Amino acid sequence: MPHSVGSPMLWLISIIVLLALVVADFLVTRRPHEVSVREAVGWSVFYLALPLLFGVWLWWDFGGDQAVEFLTGYVVEKSLSVDNLFVFMLLLAAFAVPPAVQQRVLLYGIVGALVLRGVFIAAGAALLAAGTWAFLVFGLILFASAVKMLHSALSGSEAEPDISRMRSVRFLRKLMPVTNEYHGARLTVREHGRRALTPLAVVVVAVFATDVVFAIDSVPAVYGITDDPYLVFATNAFALLGLRALYFVLHTALAKLIHLNHGLAVILAFIGVKLTLHWAHGIWPAVPEIPTAVSLAVIIGVLAVVTATSLRAGNRPRALASRE
């Protein structure tokens, strides 16, 4: 197995803290309410401070290499999670989810993503234990994901998810009747003497379906930064936990990041190259590897560029309008 900083006690403490934070989020959302900017910013600051403190602790206890690997993986996972939020935003709009229950839908999606990431992390660790060829497999997965993401971004086909074609949603509607109206945060109600699903249950299933797709991309991506299963788990957990609050902070800004998927495609392709070189280095030592610090610089640089180009592209129509 790859060397890991995660002792059994550290794993146990981390899982207990993760469950406590998830329970706290469910308690916060138990009463449907529209999230204020102040509330969203407060929770976002809290969830952004946690990984920074964790990184400092890693640096203090295990050294700079582990801390840089964690922070680099966290940046990658947070970037992919923002893309996940964009899809959540489209789903919430497509299902016309009332503002008061949107955060409950997001929380269900985050919990589903955490479970799926856990499964994929365990599978990835098993593959790495089987041999270094797993790095080549991960690299090919990321190359394929990058090509698909870039094609979707250039063609605009990712703009609107086709909910009617989701097999999980179609199966759910065949399995049970669905009410025409939302009933608060309830997933099922009794209607006309029989149990029926609310639209909230349907949108939750749609969100779970998208979670599967994002897990396939994100876990190999962070394994391209570190082969420590515990650090892979930590980066995913920290990146996902604050998404509920971050959604309401970035709701307006998400629509303006029109080049985000272009940048994410470049990042996935870059990590694919890094993984392939790492695999080749194990066979031919003369093949160079990409240091984690360089990876962090490239990833931050790509995100900065696509943010700047997105804002510039968004300001261009307003500039033309002002000239007219």
Describe the protein's topology.
Layout: H1 8-28, H2 37-62, H3 64-94, H4 99-130, H5 133-155, H6 167-175, E1 188-191, E2 194-197, H7 199-223, H8 229-241, H9 243-256, H10 260-283, H11 292-323
Antiparallel strand pairs: 1-2
Helix pairs in contact: 1-8, 2-3, 2-8, 2-9, 3-7, 3-8, 3-9, 3-10, 3-11, 4-7, 4-8, 4-9, 5-7, 5-10, 6-7, 7-8, 10-11
Give the strand tally: 2
User: How many helices in DSSP terms?
Assistant: 11
| Average of pLDDT | 80
Query: Shape, please?
Result: globular
Structural class: mainly alpha
What is the CA-CA span between the terminal residues?
65 Å
Task: Outline the biggest β-sheet.
Answer: 2 strands, antiparallel
Radius of gyration: 21 Å
Low-confidence blocks of residues: 318-323
Strand content: under 5%
SSE order: HHHHHHEEHHHHH
Strand line-up across the major sheet: 1-2
Helix content: over 70%
Quick structural summary:
This protein has helices at residues 8-28, 37-62, 64-94, 99-130, 133-155, 167-175, 199-223, 229-241, 243-256, 260-283, 292-323; strands at residues 188-191, 194-197. The protein is mainly α and 324 residues long. It has a two-stranded antiparallel sheet with strand order 1-2.
Q: Could you walk me through the main structural features you see in this protein, from its secondary elements to its overall organization?
A:
The chain is mainly alpha-helical and 324 residues long. The protein contains eleven helices and two strands, in the order ααααααββααααα. The chain has helices spanning 8-28, 37-62, 64-94, 99-130, 133-155, 167-175, 199-223, 229-241, 243-256, 260-283, 292-323, and strands spanning 188-191, 194-197. A two-stranded antiparallel sheet has the order 1-2. Helix 4 (99-130) packs antiparallel against helix 8 (229-241), helix 4 packs across helix 9 and helix 6 (167-175) runs antiparallel to helix 7 (199-223). It is globular and about 70 Å long.
